[in-house]
């Protein structure tokens, strides 16, 4: 009698193709909401298509590209079982980098890696990405969901994305436009955004012993709700500001903190000084600092301290810029100025003490 054996299969190895197909079906309605007139085809092709003839209106179009993820913030989403906001973070991290040079966001692709495909969970992640794309004014033209059993646990996941934008050559923003006397305008962040979560998790969970469901009086909500607050997407605000006022440069405040990111757009012969007394960082920053006895300079090197985007504008554009941002509901203020560098070695520094 011959013994019947069962051969190996993809499913036996832990990859569920049917679940992946189900996830694609669930996400289609959300991706459709992001479509721009230039997008051709639908979800499910091997490549996303964007009609480049739309760029003919440009004299000398420059394509801007960026890619990013959201770091260990995904673990907060996993623990809480909340998957429809992390996509906002992803879009913000990618598209707000692109808009810094003055580029209009055009389209984005995503990559979702999971230990096991749970169709509704993947669809919720894509829903957040699609909603973020609408807020950024770009299309979600495609992506990939990869199942990695054995490498990731059944509930583990990570997300990444890449985006493309376009800017006219003679409207490119950056260091070469900045002049002595320019004002530095700060735009408030919505919280921690998507940087520094390795420090935050270490301090609040490992050292302070806090839990995600713990209500924190100074935050006015649970710690988990605070940590999952989506990253603010500034893309359309920055584009509107550029159309309304003269803007010389933007700086997206992400990993490395305010001074380091602002310094990236300051020319070598100039120096940016930012006055801490012009704003009060939100309660979460104070909580992290106190809970971990983290020195102020270390906090400022890691977290955004309440500022998510900065604009460098000439003095004569300040009032117009602040009014334009206020009209869009963006909390903004003059936080500093551009000076001759002199004997300073840093491109940007913070001075004074925080308000409050």
Structure description:
The structure is a single chain. With 356 residues, the chain is an alpha+beta fold. It has helices spanning 17-32, 73-80, 86-98, 119-136, 197-207, 223-227, 235-244, 257-263, 283-292, 296-302, 318-327, and strands spanning 39-40, 49-50, 61-69, 104-114, 139-147, 157-168, 183-188, 215-216, 221-222, 249-252, 270-275, 307-313, 332-340, 348-351. α1 packs parallel to α4 (119-136) and α7 packs across α11. The longest helix is centred in the middle third of the chain and has 18 residues, at 119-136. The chain is globular, with a radius of gyration of 22 Å. The termini are far apart. The mean pLDDT is 90.
SSE order and pairing:
Blueprint: H1 17-32, E1 39-40, E2 49-50, E3 61-69, H2 73-80, H3 86-98, E4 104-114, H4 119-136, E5 139-147, E6 157-168, E7 183-188, H5 197-207, E8 215-216, E9 221-222, H6 223-227, H7 235-244, E10 249-252, H8 257-263, E11 270-275, H9 283-292, H10 296-302, E12 307-313, H11 318-327, E13 332-340, E14 348-351
Parallel strand pairs: 4-5, 11-14
Antiparallel strand pairs: 1-2, 3-6, 4-6, 7-12, 7-13, 8-9, 10-12, 11-13
Helix pairs in contact: 1-4, 3-4, 5-9, 7-11, 8-10
Span of the ends, CA to CA: 84 Å
Helix content range: 25-40%
Question: Strand order within the widest sheet?
Answer: 10-12-7-13-11-14
Q: Can you tell me the CATH class of the largest domain?
A: Alpha Beta
Low-confidence parts lasting 5 or more residues at pLDDT below 50? none
Q: How confident overall, as mean pLDDT? A: 90
CATH superfamily of the largest domain: PurM-like C-terminal domain
Main beta-sheet strand count, sense and barrel state: 6 strands, mixed
Number of domains: 2
Strand fraction: 15-25%
Order of helices and strands: HEEEHHEHEEEHEEHHEHEHHEHEE
Based on secondary structure, the structural category is alpha+beta
- Can you tell me the CATH architecture of the largest domain? Alpha-Beta Complex
- Rounded to an integer in angstroms, the radius of gyration calculated over CA atoms is 22 Å
């Amino acid at each position: 009698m011959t013994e019947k054996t069962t051969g190996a299969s993809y499913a036996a190895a832990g990859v569920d193709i049917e679940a992946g197909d189900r996830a694609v079906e669930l996400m289609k309605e959300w991706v459709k909401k992001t479509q721009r007139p230039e997008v051709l085809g639908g979800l499910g092709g091997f490549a996303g298509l964007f009609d480049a003839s739309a760029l003919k209106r440009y004299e000398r179009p420059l394509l801007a590209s960026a890619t990013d993820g959201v770091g260990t913030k995904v673990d907060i989403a996993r623990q809480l079982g909340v998957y429809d906001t992390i996509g906002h973070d992803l879009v913000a991290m990618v598209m707000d980098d692109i808009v810094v040079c003055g580029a209009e966001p055009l389209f984005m692709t995503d990559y979702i890696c999971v230990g096991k495909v749970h169709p509704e969970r993947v669809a919720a992640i894509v829903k957040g990405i699609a909603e973020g794309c609408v807020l950024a004014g770009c299309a979600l033209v495609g992506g990939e969901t990869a199942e990695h059993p054995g490498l990731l646990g059944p509930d583990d996941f990570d997300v990444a994305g890449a985006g493309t934008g376009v800017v006219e050559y003679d409207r490119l923003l950056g260091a070469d436009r900045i002049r002595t006397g320019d004002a530095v305008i700060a735009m408030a962040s919505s919280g921690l955004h998507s940087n520094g979560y390795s420090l935050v998790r270490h301090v609040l969970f490992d050292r302070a012993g806090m839990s995600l469901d713990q209500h924190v009086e100074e935050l006015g909500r649970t710690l988990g709700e605070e940590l999952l607050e989506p990253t603010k997407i500034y893309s359309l605000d920055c584009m509107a500001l550029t159309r309304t006022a003269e803007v010389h440069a933007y700086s997206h405040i992400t990993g490395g903190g305010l001074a380091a990111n602002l310094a990236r757009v300051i020319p070598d012969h100039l120096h940016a000084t930012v006055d801490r007394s012009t704003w009060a960082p939100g309660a979460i920053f104070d909580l992290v600092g106190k809970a971990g006895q983290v020195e102020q300079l270390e906090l400022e090197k890691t977290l955004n301290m309440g500022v998510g985007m900065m604009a460098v504008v000439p003095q004569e554009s300040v009032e117009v810029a602040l009014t334009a941002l206020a009209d869009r509901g963006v909390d903004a203020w003059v936080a500093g100025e551009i000076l001759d560098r002199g004997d300073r070695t840093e491109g940007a520094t913070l001075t004074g003490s925080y308000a409050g």
